Task: structure prediction
Amino acid sequence: MFDILHYSFMQRALISGIIIGIVCSVIGVYIVLKGISFIGAGIAHASFGGVALGFLLGINPLFTAIVFCLFTGWGIGFLSHKNRIKEDTAVGIFFASTMALGILFIGLMKGYNVDLFGYLFGSILAVTEEDLIITISLGFIILTFDVVLFKELMFITFDREMAEVTGIPTTKIYFLLISLIALTVVLSIKVVGIILVSALLITPAATAYQLTEEFKRMMFFSILFGVSGTIAGLFLSYWLNTASGATIVVVITIIFFISLLLSPKRRKKTKKISAG
Amino acid sequence: MKNKIIELKGVYVYYQDLLALENVNLEISEGEFHSIIGPNGAGKTTLLKLIIGLIKPTKGTIKVFGKNPWKLGKERKKIGYVPQIMSVDINFPVNVMEVVLMGRYAQIGLFKPPGKIDKELALKAMEKVGIADLYSRSLSKLSGGQRQRVFLARALSNEPEILILDEPTTGVDTATTESFYELLQDLRKDGMTIVIVSHDIGVVAAYVDRIACLNKKLVAHGRPEEVLKEPKLEEMYGCEAILLLHHNIPHIAVKEH
Ligand SMILES: Nc1ncnc2c1ncn2[C@@H]1O[C@H](COP(=O)(O)OP(=O)(O)OP(=O)(O)O)[C@@H](O)[C@H]1O
Ligand SMILES: [Mg+2]
Result:
């Protein structure tokens, strides 16, 4: 039954999937707790422009996607910094304009590019050796920053104002967090797809949030659900011949609803209200 | 007269077009227990944010430890801050020890986890406010009064010289509020300068040295019995409004220090 592991494309997809599962789940914890899932979604859509540009220039679209996602993330951070405009407005501006650029780039290409479909919805057949190297490198960079700046990332997520008061360089850490989100999006789009990557950023962390009141344990559960959901989704997508991204998202969403039923306490969600 | 530890001269703060503070002159001495009262939107939090260096004045000067507060750098640890309660998500998955330790993070520096000294300082702060037994309890499982003590312990974890509190006893019952003020009284005896924004005028008056009544401008300033019995009521409209709001006008117990 696992003879498909002999195929090298499946091996690459699986290694890729495990790294994606880990990285998305880790970064997702900050996204869910800070309540900035729309930033993840905005950056994900921006990658479309980057991917299209890569096709137009004839280079690996992941490279152009890195540039697009980082600049979009920084743009959102810059515009919303010090409340110049609201974060969701900034996201809205970038999200539409980068998609528009993508569509213009496609228009400039001769003929329609089939591979683009794979980027939108994810494809296990699509992970090349070069992609795998990019995924491993980006994954390593993201996880290193997360480990090294763990306490600062947690502090600004919990209480940015207090972090600032005590002398943490909150602006730099915030921009770093946005950069990590951008890189996470890029490393995930091959397997999960541009449209669905934000689900993988949010759902495992949201699942973990149902089950624990400890930060590190939440991180651990998130990784557990993210990785197992990704692996299960990949195998199912092979057997059922469905798009890998969509299959993964369906699996992790089912896990989420199960956790909701098993959640020890139905917690009252108190919204963040800024200091008056 | 003791050293002026906090000094504001002709301070104005605008948020875009909105005037939040107008020509505020205020001096607070070392070791003073000082309260700021005033109606909602009076600029109390704004004044505290100036002192801790979160915002800069639009006009005028402010000095804390003789320096501009946003330039304090490492000296920031000498200021402990307990923010207004609604500014954090109380369902965040952290326990008491972790929250208190956060106060130490900037001192620990980047790239390093908290060490033994940090944990000792955190425990000491927790003992001081009487929550050492709660150290592994998660934040969402605390009562309002306990939670405020956690944030107080976090502010104390760096053994600060100035303690700034923004309405720490909102939504806390009277008995708990009084024991909270007793605690502040003890800290003050250790020589700490305390600045507290509060709506519990009756309680505050019994403990603090001076009260500043703020309504964009400094409406009145002085010893509690002077400020609260001030005959110029029309000038005091800001403070009077709160007194009426809280239905506790006449009962002002002034303790002897
Ligand atoms: N970041 C901000 N941007 C714009 N306006 C602000 C900001 N912070 C405060 N304000 C405005 O400044 C005024 C003073 O606000 P501040 O928070 O200092 O009042 P306060 O006295 O603390 O009130 P409360 O008792 O409700 O806490 C209010 O009108 C408020 O709307
Ligand atoms: Mg306030």
